[in-house]
Amino acid sequence: xxxxxxxxxxxxxxxxxxxxxxxxxxxxxxxxxxxxxxxxxxxxxxxxxxxxxxxxxxxxxxxxxxxxxxxxxxxxxxxxxxxxxxxxxxxxxxxxxxxxxxxxxxxxxxxxxxxxxxxxxxxxxxxxxxxxxxxxxxxxxxxxxxxxxxxxxxxxxxxxxxxxxxxxxxxxxxxxxxxxxxxxxxxxxxxxxxxxxxxxx
Amino acid sequence: xxxxxxxxxxxxxxxxxxxxxxxxxxxxxxxxxxxxxxxxxxxxxxxxxxxxxxxxxxxxxxxxxxxxxxxxxxxxxxxxxxxxxxxxxxxxxxxxxxxxxxxxxxxxxxxxxxxxxxxxxxxxxxxxxxxxxxxxxxxxxxxxxxxxxxxxxxxxxxxxxxxxxxxxxxxxxxxxxxxxxxxxxxxxxxxxxxxxxxxxxxxxxxxxxxxxxxxxxxxxxxxxxxxxxxxxxxxxxxxxxxxxxxxxxxxxxxxxxxxxxxxxxxxxxxxxxxxxxxxxxxxxxxxxxxxxxxxxxxxxxxxxxxxxxxxxxxxxxxxxxxxxxxxxxxxxxxxxxxxxxxxxxxxxxxxxxxxxxxxxxxxxxxxxxxxxxxxxxxxxxxxxxxxxxxxxxxxxxxxxxxxxxxxxxxxxxxxxxxxxxxxxxxxxxxxxxxxxxxxxxxxxxxxxxxxxxxxxxxxxxxxxxxxxxxxxxxxxxxxxxxxxxxxxxxxxxxxxxxxxxxxxxxxxxxxxxxxxxxxxxxxxxxxxxxxxxxxxxxxxxxxxxxxxxxxxxxxxxxxxxxxxxxxxxxx
Lengths: 201, 571
Ligand SMILES: Cc1cc2nc3c(=O)[nH]c(=O)nc-3n(C[C@H](O)[C@H](O)[C@H](O)COP(=O)(O)OP(=O)(O)OC[C@H]3O[C@@H](n4cnc5c(N)ncnc54)[C@H](O)[C@@H]3O)c2cc1C
Ligand code: SF4
What we know:
Bound molecules: flavin-adenine dinucleotide, iron/sulfur cluster
Shape of chain A: globular
Helix content of chain A: 55-70%
Structural class of chain B: alpha/beta
Oligomer: heterodimer
Number of strands of chain B: 21
Number of strands of chain A: 3
Distance between the termini of chain B: 29 Å
Largest sheet of chain B: 8 strands, mixed
């Protein structure tokens, strides 16, 4: 859109929209800030089952491929390992273990959906409380000390990484959008139908 | 003995250009086209046009982390991380690793974003291209700030025109004093909500809004196609390098033009360490370089030297060029070398959502947005601070990313994200920074792996910038409101530094005398007249518009002068 992606992520942030965590917090990276050291991260098979099930709830297989078809569960684990640090590793593992304790996988589908709906509502409240705290203490406070130390909540990580993993995968893009890597022109459309698929470039 | 002479011959040229970025590319083109044998000394590796753009044609799923920087990258590109985008997976290969190329922040912060390879930052720039206006050259003198410019708009105007025609600038002529028109190729289109915004802001606030002026070929001419350049394909993946040569870069435009003269020698991996000063002639006789891989030291000789290593790079080369006569850095009698670092400050503005326009959409990814020229302290408008800012931004429809913050999941949610979302809009200011001699860098005591001093920066915003930022935020909100947009969010990022605009400049400024500046009105180092500086280093003030077009114009002008002086045997 414009010269500075910066402004775009600002919009995303302020609209409560897109991307959390490293990408945004990264903007505040100070030289030598290694206070939150990267650690190894991996899931057990039991944990993987939960992650797969949750991802598939977010993007289920319908007439088009779902999260599992698009390899999203493995993508999430890899992203957590490579791109996130200890606080997110902790919050993510805590989220998985909460679901395990609640016997998530043993629930019927409707029960699982109900649990995740509740989790989403709780997560929203939690994130609101983080950001209220931040507004109170002021913008200049290192986010490490607030949401940073708590880690981005499990549900938010799951949702973000599932959407990212799916809608940028080959299967997800081909099934969801009109993929035009070389559009060749810029043209205004003035009679868009509600069925219009997004263009992805 | 013979061998030696041959070697020196092989290392002797009419002109040396240090750096192959935007300004160095222009120097190489102009000097070779005027008949000189030119060597370009480039510190970085060679990147070949088209085949060197290794990520240009990759699909989104071919990036392991789908574009996100890894923890490892975040640590190595720590300065880049502050921009939030330069270390992204798709174009990281064109930016410098900050850990391998360390610098030190002494006081405040400084974001030094570097690109060491053929073409320098010309491969990465945002291509936003604006002429300075008449007042920009006069403000220092009128306000008693910094040092007066020895040149004015009229000195550059013909050269603006000259470089614009070759580079290819798309834009809309508006006839504004504050933002003089360029020689334009056809403008890119505005979207429907953008047209609405433009009209509302114009009618209610009397402010013009125009489509961004960009160095993209919307309708190439022969001078462009002759170099193998073609029309923009609206992919907006420009920072990966453009296989169509559709945007202006050294690789797509100036270096091929220089190459076809048969008089250009490109020397890569050659870090210019110092300019060799000849006490007897009071001129520079050559440049000592260090091979970045072999560490070998080598000298190249020429009648004239163009220093185009980027503002900080060029300045540090002069600092490092010490002789009996210049113990404090070449041409540094004024002690201004390294001082007055400027940039454009950004990170303040507003965003909103737009209701309606459901039937409007667009095909193609426009590599451009809108521009709102400076209106503060212009004409009758007076503010509590001096100078001003312009805005860049635009409107677009949300994609799947909106799902991250939205409620819901499951089949319906999944389907809904395959359609365009609502329109959103945002504008961020680019503000002028005043020259301040205390905002500076020096050569530090520590050495890098090539034995060159590591630079130490001290820089911070002054009251003028801080006041302006408040206004940048508020006025953006006012305009979005005037257009009837909803959910307006105004922001003013506090944790930002000089340098984040990646328009670093001012550290070897142009001025009226050797007492107040480093170069004269012809871009010659005052008393070392065969050394020319034509990049951001020479800026005596910053204006608020993106700077590169002015570097291009200045370079072409200085090259013309230099060759005439050579002919007159004045150099
Ligand atoms: C992401 C981004 C967006 C930008 N957007 C815009 C924009 O929209 N509009 C605009 O006008 N400007 C923009 N800029 C700024 C623009 O890129 C610079 O103003 C421009 O490239 C400066 O040209 P230059 O020749 O001075 O330096 P550069 O293009 O940086 O080139 C300097 C060259 O010198 C080489 N070098 C450095 N030191 C040495 C040495 N010691 N020896 C030999 N070689 C050396 C480097 O390797 C490099 O190749 C942007 C920059 C970035 C990174
Ligand atoms: S938008 Fe135009 S200039 Fe940018 S990469 Fe695509 S074709 Fe090249």
